[in-house]
Design brief:
There is one protein chain. The chain is an alpha+beta fold. Helices cover about 40% and strands about 15% of the residues. It contains 41 helices and 26 strands. Strand 7 and strand 8 form a beta hairpin.
């Protein structure tokens, strides 16, 4: 098999089989692309006839390249070697093994090499002995986790190095102050002083006593005058003491030469007269002042302990003084020298005999440049023609007499580089935040849209929810402000499981909530589940009925996965993904007319002939969790948005918390839920690429407006039904984050379509109330987010360009998720830096953080949702948990899974998947048939519109036994009645409903009285339809062949009936029909008038037609098109051009273009609309031509 290949759907041939193209190269070929650097999808078992070895083949028909027909026969002959996996620990490990060889992709090999390079130091034996990791695939997952954690730690190091370490290396912390800074630090609490280029903190010094001599003590108020000033004038240094090598004793025998020279300089320190002057011989009585080295001997040692740093000068100011003010502020090797006193002295008229000229004449010549160049004379200094000894002597002299500080480098490019970089990053992030803010300011449409006439199936997967949650969800869906007949509650119970705190199993809770008779037990149906080995075989039971809630009468279907008889613990449980695939695969097979498993055939049967709605009519799938309450107008808003934009493939609304005040754990989550929708999802929606449509409340379009399958497309169903979830990456994609991965698959396969968010559609869900539950939930969410975003990074088609693209947003989300803990680390560093003053506080970061949360606050303020002020404070208090504790825990527990009974062995360039189980199982043993064939058999047997038989062992009649044998023959498991355990499908007593079914108690939902009870009580089921009384003549095996042919033809075009003129008139006449039981069934099933007229033309009695298409009293039947006037029969309403165009489009989607002619299309249109379309012949031909050449 070609690695990284990609299957592409092309078209249906005349036999409705699917042709595939397996030569497309997968576009994303990075480490986490398909194959993910992890695994290529496993080789599938072969197909023989209509029997499929795997669900992938069942939905798309992919043949194995490793095994052919003969191989399959050989495998059947050696059934003992096949076996299967026990899945998630449901069964004990068996003795059967099934081995599959799967090619290892190049990306996977590279990733494995990298993983071993990162974890070579850990022996496998130690992991096995101490870590209790006996299996090599579990040990490999641990190594992958460690490798990923190493990558995450490296990213942390890089990020922290950039924002903290790089700045410290390029520009270390300097304890320096400008003279302006010193001047401003002059208070009673803090007082600084400068002297000869150094800064001193004299706050405590001036409070000490004992300064001065014994006769003239210095008071604190006198010492405080030094605060904020340069005290050089108070501590003068003589030239001879500072430069003994340049100033001889003959030049200054009494140590009197000081700079500035009195009378020579006009730039005298204004504070010089205020200070006490510590000159030698100033006070002969002072032992200290007598010393000629007073400054170095007494001042410096005393003040050293008060020294804080140095004085710095900005280069721009020095150049200004040098050029504009003619002041000799000079720079040599970044050190600043104030040479103006020396220039004044040597130019002084009293400088006889060059008394004050002691520096080298070459340097003095350099000083007289007349403002040439800049204040920095370093190069000129080095270029003087003197020896090193002379240069050093002059430098030491200047350093002692004229040094005033250093050049301020804090504003240099080197020091500001990291700031510039952080500013650039901050600008990009602020731009993203600003766009998110603007996206969140979309206030939506407050007016409620009129419910669109689109058929929606509301899928509710159940697992261990309690009665209250299930009741709330069902009632919220039933009470939606949407046409009742256009929505179907489809509830899937994932296993016969009793949840914690529940007294009944989940299926029983659901059925009791819906008012189903506990005495009814339909037969179990086989289907192929999403599992490995024998756990692929699962059995489900189908129930259907009407649910009455506050005036809403809504059809429902329940599929209870009960498991095989061998399953003793958690029987039937296969996971949420299996529940989703069950419905997706069903609609995929409906769309492509593929063979179906017995369970899918029964779903089709009850949906089509008991509920009365053809499966092809459903256009949208609303996914709702069993603990979610949907707001009444939400479905209308979602469908209206999709109707207004035909390129929307998926959409979600806002999820709020229904238990926000339950505990501190729930309070922490309120603001996080709010902002994740109103900023993150709203922003992504601008690109039409919401990266996660939450499974608790989202809606997908099953097919596009032109009939192209979307959610039910072969690539989606194939990828989402992956069986071998045997690597760390696949586990995180398919076991932890199946909802997000489904969104990822939609983005992968349909980049031209949109995934949107609208804020007006709302729901409430139950958030974890305990910390341990929240940790478990967030572990799944965070890890699935990482792996899904990694998948999206390599998609070739994403909206936008460069930094203004969805790819860049995905990168930011991925990088932000991985490095989230560094935020808290950086906050801790900022606090430490501010307290210890080891570095400047990152004001850019603080401004960015303030802007982010400030804009978030503006959002709920503008929306007048003041309660979020408090929720935001609680969220911020819990920020360390969100940003550090939960991510770190999640990353380290990335491999925390149940691995089932599948072992993976690598060798010879292939991965051998060894599945151990307790029994052999061949997926092809589950019979699969096309619906048309199955429907014909039911019609011939007279049970097409009859409910499934009751499998209760104490119930039965000759009629029921015959019907039961027919139903039971469709199952490949041949279960006995006693093996079936689920019961259901009795509606409680209700008045006459709009669907025409008389549902009184104790009459069953199918119209027959309840019989003698046994295990649950045995309902004696009659053969009536849910929506109308069943005619006993229908039980006869004599069926008019013309009737069957006509019926099959109608089913082939069943997608058009709800757009017929009669159906459109039915909406306007709903009030009349709701009050007249004779009309209610005809309203719900628009086939009734067409079937009646056609039967009359063919000579078929009305009683032969499916009973659900008629009212209970057929003698009083009124055709749909006459309901407005009740004036007798008339010709059907003539269809509009739009209706004809829609019907032609549907016909062409499902037609074989090689054999379909315009005449055939016109005949189908006549049959659909029930009227002569001869006047529209030219119009029909024109539309067909336009559609075939792509013009319509």
């Amino acid at each position: 098999m070609n690695n990284g290949r990609k299957s592409q759907y092309t078209e249906l041939d005349s036999n409705h089989s699917v042709s595939t193209n397996m030569n497309g190269q997968e576009a994303a070929d990075g480490m986490f692309a398909r194959g993910v650097g992890f695994e290529e999808q496993s080789t599938q078992a072969p197909r023989r006839g209509t029997m499929f070895g795997t669900l992938k083949e069942a939905v798309g028909g992919r043949m194995s390249t490793h095994e052919g027909r003969d191989d399959l026969v050989a495998r059947k002959e050696n059934a003992q070697l096949m076996g299967g996996t026990g899945g998630e620990g449901n069964m004990e490990k068996g003795n059967h093994e099934h081995v599959e060889n799967v090619e290892i992709t190049r990306n996977r090999k590279l990733w494995v090499y990298f993983t071993w390079a990162m974890t070579f130091w850990m022996p496998s034996g130690l992991l096995s002995a101490c870590g209790r990791m006996k299996r090599p695939d579990v040990r490999m997952a641990w190594r992958e986790k460690v490798a990923i954690c190493a990558i995450i730690l490296f990213l942390w190091f890089v990020l922290l190095f950039i924002i903290i370490g790089l700045g410290l290396i390029l520009c270390p912390k300097e304890y320096v102050w400008t003279m302006d800074d010193v001047t401003n630090i002059n208070t009673a609490k803090k007082s600084y002083m400068a002297s000869r280029g150094d800064v001193y903190d004299i706050t405590d010094f001036i409070k000490q006593t004992g300064h001065g001599n014994s006769r003239n003590r210095a008071r604190p108020d006198q010492l405080s005058r030094y605060g904020g000033f340069d005290a050089n004038a108070s501590f003068p240094i003589t030239a001879r003491a500072a430069c003994p090598d340049l100033v001889s004793d003959t030049r200054d025998p009494n140590y009197l030469i000081q700079y500035p020279v009195s009378g020579a300089s006009s730039n005298i320190d204004e504070q010089a007269g205020v200070y006490f002057k510590h000159s030698p011989q100033m006070d002969p009585r002072s032992e200290e002042l007598v010393s000629r080295d007073f400054y170095w001997k007494y001042f410096q040692p005393t003040m050293e302990k008060f020294k804080k740093g140095g004085v710095v000068w900005k280069m721009d100011w020095l150049n200004t003084m040098y050029k504009d003010q003619s002041m000799q502020w000079l720079v040599i090797n970044k050190e600043v020298f104030y040479m103006q006193p020396y220039i004044d002295a040597i130019s002084y008229a009293g400088n006889t005999n060059d008394t004050y000229n002691f520096l080298d004449s070459r340097f003095e010549a350099l000083l007289n440049r007349g403002g040439y160049g800049t204040a920095d004379i370093t190069e000129d200094w080095k270029g003087l023609n003197w020896d090193a000894s002379t240069m050093q002597t002059n430098y030491d002299c200047m350093r002692r007499l004229f040094y005033v500080g250093t050049v301020d480098n804090r504003s240099s490019v080197r020091c500001l580089f990291t700031n510039y970089m952080l500013v650039a990053f901050a600008c990009v992030l602020m731009l993203v935040v600003l766009v998110k803010f603007l996206a969140a300011l979309q206030f939506g449409n407050k007016s409620r849209p009129s419910p669109p006439e689109k058929f929606v199936i509301c899928q509710v997967p159940c697992y261990t929810e309690d009665e209250e949650s299930i009741l709330k969800t069902i009632e919220s869906l039933a009470g939606l402000e949407y046409v009742d007949k256009h929505k179907l509650l489809f509830i899937i119970c994932d296993g016969n499981i009793v949840g914690s705190g529940n007294e009944k199993s989940t299926p029983r809770i659901v059925l009791d909530t819906l008012g189903v008779d506990p005495e009814y037990d339909p037969p179990g149906r086989d289907y192929l589940a999403i599992a490995e080995g024998s756990r692929r075989h699962n059995i489900g039971k189908v129930y259907s009925g009407l649910y009455d809630f506050e005036g809403h009468v809504v059809p429902f279907m329940v599929v209870a996965k009960v498991g095989t008889p061998e399953e003793a613990n958690r029987s039937g449980n296969r996971g949420k993904r299996d529940s989703q695939i069950l419905l997706m695969s069903f609609f995929n097979k409906v769309h492509f007319n593929l063979p179906m498993t017995p369970l899918e055939l029964e779903i089709y049967h009850q949906m089509r002939h008991i509920i009365g709605v053809p499966p092809r009519n459903y256009e949208y799938l609303l996914q709702v969790d069993a603990d979610t309450e949907v707001m009444p107008d939400s479905l209308s808003r979602l469908v209206s948005a999709c109707t207004g934009d035909q390129r929307i493939a998926g959409i979600c609304g806002e999820t709020m918390l229904g238990n926000e005040s339950k505990s501190w754990t729930t309070m922490m989550q309120v603001y996080e839920y709010f902002i994740s929708h109103h900023m993150s999802k709203a922003f992504e929606s601008l690109f039409g690429s919401v990266t996660c449509l939450p499974g608790c409340f989202s809606m997908f379009r099953l097919r596009s407006s032109n009939g192209k399958p979307l959610l039910i497309a072969k690539p989606i169903v194939e990828a989402y039904s992956e069986l071998h979830v045997d690597t760390l990456h696949k586990k995180n994609l398919l076991s932890l984050g199946e909802d997000r991965y489904l969104t990822t698959l939609m983005m992968k396969n349909f980049p031209k379509f949109k995934l949107k968010f609208i804020q007006d559609a709302k729901c409430r869900t139950i958030a974890p109330e305990k910390w341990s539950v929240l940790v478990s939930q967030r572990r799944r969410w965070i890890n699935s987010t990482v792996h899904n975003l990694a998948e999206l990074m390599f998609l070739p088609d994403m909206c936008g360009f460069c930094c203004f693209s969805m790819r860049f947003v995905v990168f930011l989300d991925l990088f932000g998720t991985l490095t989230m803990p560094t935020t808290l680390i950086y906050f801790a560093y900022l606090i430490y830096a501010a307290v210890r003053n080891i570095a400047d506080v990152g004001y850019i970061s603080l401004i960015l953080i303030g802007a982010i949360y400030g804009l978030q606050a503006v959002i709920f303020i503008l929306r007048r949702e003041w309660q979020h002020v408090g929720w935001m404070l609680i969220y911020l208090l819990a920020y360390p948990l969100w940003s550090f504790v939960l991510p770190v825990y999640s990353f380290w527990h990335m491999d925390d899974f149940s691995w089932g009974n599948t072992r993976v062995v690598v060798g010879d360039g292939k991965r051998k998947i060894i599945i151990e189980d307790d029994k052999p199982f061949d997926p092809s043993s589950i019979p699969q048939r096309k619906w048309m064939e199955y429907e014909k058999e039911l019609a011939v047997a007279g049970v097409l519109n009859a409910p499934p038989p009751n499998m209760n062992p104490n119930a039965g009649s000759s009629k029921e036994d015959d019907r039961m044998s027919l139903y039971s023959s469709q199952s490949g498991a041949h279960m006995s009645r006693a093996d079936s355990s689920m019961a259901i499908a009795q509606m409680p007593g209700h008045p006459q409903t709009m669907y025409g079914a008389q549902m009184g108690s104790p009459q069953s939902m199918y119209g027959s009285p309840v019989g003698t009870p046994s295990m649950y009580g045995t309902p004696q089921m009659g053969t009536s339809s849910m929506y109308g009384a069943y005619d006993p003549r229908m039980s006869s095996a004599m069926v008019n062949p013309q009737m069957l042919a006509m019926q099959q033809q109608q089913h082939a075009n069943v997608g058009s009936v709800y757009d017929s003129p009669m159906m459109r008139q039915s909406t306007a006449s709903s009030n009349i029909m709701a009050n007249d039981p004779r009309l209610s069934t005809a309203m719900y099933n628009p086939h009734a008038p067409q079937m009646q007229m056609q039967n009359a033309r063919m000579g078929v009695p009305e009683a032969w037609a499916p009973p659900s298409m008629y009212a209970q009293d057929q003698s009083q039947y009124v055709p749909m098109h006459e309901m407005g006037s009740h004036s007798g029969r008339s010709t059907p309403a003539f269809p509009s051009d739009d209706q004809i165009i829609d019907a032609i489009r549907r016909i062409l989607v499902n037609a074989d273009l090689a054999t379909t002619t315009k005449k055939v299309i016109r005949a189908q249109l006549v049959q659909e609309f029930g009227c002569d379309l001869a006047p529209k012949k030219d119009f029909i031909s024109k539309i067909v031509d336009q559609m075939l050449i792509g013009g319509a």
